[in-house]
Design a protein that fits this description.
With 391 residues, this protein is of the alpha+beta class. It is 19% helix and 16% strand.
């Protein structure tokens, strides 16, 4: 009996010692884990892109292999893009954390560390304040923090040397940015030259003495028009598209690169336009039966008639209304009277139906779409078109 008690006591002591050792090891792993980014005190991420970079430093390869990052909602583990050993012996793991509008909570094990990130999608930079105390900005202090400088230097990433030869180098050439922001530099089929050639500091250089990086805010066109000088004339024109008027080119254009021509973030024929002009959305999709859509809307798109920047014509039309219409409807070219019946004018200084507007094609026809044949503003039968003016 005494032997049994001594044996069981021995087993208990061994288990206790094992548990203590495991807890010490676990604590050691947790202590060896440092989250370098994002900054836990900056919980607000304002961005067009629905993700944020996370960088974790671990004291060793074994410890790095035990790190687990996942969403608190239990949507599965987030795998790192890779693990790299720095010159100081530490291992660095790089993650891309997917974000949804609102609060996002991620768990990092070991240590049950919660990372809380509030994501606010940006549609415009006009109201963005990168200096706000709660806003997260990785390059707030330095282009490359000291802890990262062992691997991220001005040397072009080794595996990308072949791409280096494609770049045109100048004083703003900054390959250090590429090692993290490759997605931006190589984004999409249509690439913005400064981004592709890694002239990042041409737009993002902050205080030269401090060596930080700025995120452009406020009037973006102050930066864009330094190169796109032809755009300066738009500000002097009579009818200016809203984004141009407020000076935010990035409402339509991605300054790094995109899938669509001119670095547009959506199809410039129509899909981009209806993101703001939502009342026209049904013209390009889900058109109800019996509704007549102007062929040019689904054909050439909005910019066949409208300038996306500015013109001297109402609604940013490329030409005065009647001149624009007969560009396609050539059989009407030169006609002043006689449509739709003899003696009826086609244009005039005053529209009886629309005070302050000139009389023209759009007095009777809706240029986008209509429930009636020939895109008329009323039913042709019963004189419902004529009665709009002739009471």
């Amino acid at each position: 009996m005494p032997c049994r008690e001594s044996c069981s006591g021995f087993v208990v002591r061994i288990l206790v010692l094992f548990l203590i050792g495991y807890l010490c090891l676990f604590a050691g792993i947790a202590d060896a884990l440092t989250i370098l980014a994002p900054d836990a005190s900056k919980i607000l991420v304002n961005s067009r892109r629905s993700f944020v970079h996370m960088v974790i430093r671990s004291s060793g390869k074994v410890n790095a292999g035990r790190i687990v990052v996942e969403k608190e909602t239990g949507q599965g583990r987030i795998n790192p893009l890779g693990s790299w050993q720095g010159n100081n012996g530490y291992y660095f793991l790089h993650y891309i954390l997917p974000l949804k509008s609102g609060m996002n909570i991620f768990m990092v094990e070991p240590g049950k560390r919660r990372i809380r990130i509030r994501y606010r999608p940006l549609a415009t930079l006009l109201n963005y304040n990168s200096s706000a105390s709660s806003a997260y900005h990785f390059h707030r202090q330095k282009v490359v923090p000291v802890v990262c400088s062992g691997c991220h230097s001005q040397g072009f990433p080794g595996e990308q040397n072949i791409l280096e030869r494609e770049r045109i180098k100048c004083k703003d050439f900054s390959p250090v940015c590429y090692s993290c922001h490759r997605r931006l530099a190589d984004a999409g089929r249509w690439r913005h030259s400064p981004s592709f050639n890694l002239y990042c500091l041409g737009c993002h250089e902050g205080n030269k003495g401090r060596g930080d990086i700025v995120v452009i805010q406020g009037r973006v066109d102050d930066t864009c028009l330094r190169c796109h000088v032809n755009g300066r004339k738009w500000k002097k024109m009579g009818h200016i598209h809203g984004p141009v008027g407020v000076g935010d080119c990035t409402v339509c254009h991605d300054p790094h690169g995109a899938r669509y021509k001119y670095q547009l973030w959506a199809d410039g024929k129509a899909a981009l336009c209806v993101a703001c002009h939502a009342d026209k959305k049904r013209l390009i999709s889900g058109t109800p039966l019996g509704f007549h859509v102007h062929g040019i809307v689904k054909g050439g798109g909005c910019t066949i008639c409208h300038s996306p920047h500015a013109t001297e014509n109402i609604f940013q039309l490329l030409e005065p209304i009647n001149k624009l219409c007969v560009g396609c409807h050539v059989t009407m070219k030169g006609i002043i009277v006689g449509h739709p019946v003899g003696g009826h004018p086609v244009k005039g200084p005053r529209d009886p139906r629309r005070p302050g507007r000139r009389f023209g094609c759009t007095s009777c026809h809706n240029p986008h779409g209509s429930n009636y044949a020939y895109l008329l503003i009323g039913d042709l039968l019963g004189g419902h078109v004529c009665s709009k003016c002739h009471h």
